[in-house]
């Protein structure tokens, strides 16, 4: 039986199921402490596997295209935060103060790796440059994101200092990634052969963090403090932010004279925000019941960007095929 077209992807369905489960059966007390330990181990494994999967050769191959990378980084770490700040008068009435902080956190995050590369490939863009930009964005984000969070959110960014936050992120995210890169020499081929089922490690780690975050949030009363009108407003806010970013990245690519393949890479690498990196970072940077509210915009934006960019990638891919046929 064919899958109904109106159904979202499996990861989205799992996220919805996890939020429902955490709302009905939240962990608390000693169980929550043990669950946090399990979550931290899963996050370390997640970034170890990222390091083992990422090809250094592909990164080096794309590094020479510095103009494209600078533009993608500017879109990720400058344009997104500026939009978050400039849109405050429109966003706060839609989503309220707490969810707006989650939008600011979303704007400070690095780009995705997997989906940016996948969509660039489908759209027949510059895949080597997409690999380099997305991968480097994730690594740079380990140091830049805490600074941006402090700059954008100020006292709301948490009690720990910026250096302390960066140190925790380095230990929990970067060191496992480096270990994975070192271990790639021995396990790289095995990882490549088994990448289909190893994908569940990525997704399982994210689901664990989301369950823990929403358990804390439910215990603190998130569903009593976030009304339905603000949730609907959040959908509108995420759509507005994504539409502006997609339009600006497309315009900048044309304005700066990039070819079609590079413009495709700029659109798909410069408009993404990483759920896989953002949720673990939130786990380190924030604590308590606020975590569930802060990652809610990221979870929603992530799903919207996947659905919209899938349509765009297919359209770019068909256009490329038509152009090739006409040329032939």
From TrEMBL:
Keywords assigned: Membrane, Transmembrane, Transmembrane helix
Name under which the protein is recorded: Bile acid:sodium symporter
InterPro entries associated with the record: Na+/solute_symporter_sf (IPR038770), Put_Na-Bile_cotransptr (IPR016833)
Keyword match Kinase: no
A Gene Ontology cellular-component term: plasma membrane
Pfam families, alphabetized: SBF_like (PF13593)
Transmembrane segments: 39-56, 68-87, 99-120, 127-153, 165-183, 204-225, 231-253, 274-300
Native organism taxonomy: Bacteria, Pseudomonadati, Pseudomonadota, Gammaproteobacteria, Pseudomonadales
Organism this protein belongs to: Halopseudomonas pachastrellae
């Amino acid at each position: 039986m064919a899958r109904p077209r109106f159904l979202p992807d499996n990861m989205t369905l799992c996220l919805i199921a996890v939020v429902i489960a955490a709302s009905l059966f939240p962990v608390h007390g000693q169980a929550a402490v043990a669950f946090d330990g399990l979550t931290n181990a899963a996050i370390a494994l997640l970034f170890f596997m990222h390091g083992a999967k990422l090809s250094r050769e592909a990164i080096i191959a794309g590094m020479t295209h510095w103009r494209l990378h600078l533009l993608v980084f500017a879109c990720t770490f400058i344009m997104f935060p500026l939009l978050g700040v400039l849109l405050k008068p429109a966003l706060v009435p839609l989503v309220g103060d707490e969810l707006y902080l989650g939008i600011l956190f979303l704007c400070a995050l690095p780009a995705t790796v997997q989906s940016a590369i996948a969509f660039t490939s489908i759209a027949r863009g510059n895949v080597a440059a997409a690999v380099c930009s997305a991968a480097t964005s994730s690594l740079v984000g380990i140091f830049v994101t805490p600074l941006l969070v402090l700059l954008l959110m100020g006292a709301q960014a948490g009690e720990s200092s910026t250096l302390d936050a960066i140190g925790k992120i380095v230990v929990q995210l970067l060191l496992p990634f480096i270990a994975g890169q070192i271990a790639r020499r021995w396990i790289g081929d095995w990882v490549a052969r088994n990448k289909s089922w190893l994908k569940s490690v990525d997704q399982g780690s994210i689901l664990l963090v989301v369950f823990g975050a929403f358990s804390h949030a439910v215990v603190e009363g998130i569903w009593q403090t976030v009304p339905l009108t603000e949730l609907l407003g959040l959908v509108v806010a995420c759509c507005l932010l994504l539409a502006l970013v997609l339009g600006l990245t497309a315009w900048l690519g044309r304005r700066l004279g990039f070819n079609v393949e590079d413009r495709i890479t700029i659109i798909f690498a410069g408009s993404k925000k990483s759920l896989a990196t953002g949720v673990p970072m939130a786990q380190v940077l924030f604590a308590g019941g606020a975590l569930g509210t802060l990652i809610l915009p990221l979870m929603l934006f992530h799903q919207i960007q996947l659905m919209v960019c899938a349509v765009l990638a297919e359209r770019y891919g068909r256009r490329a095929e038509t152009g090739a046929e006409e040329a032939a």
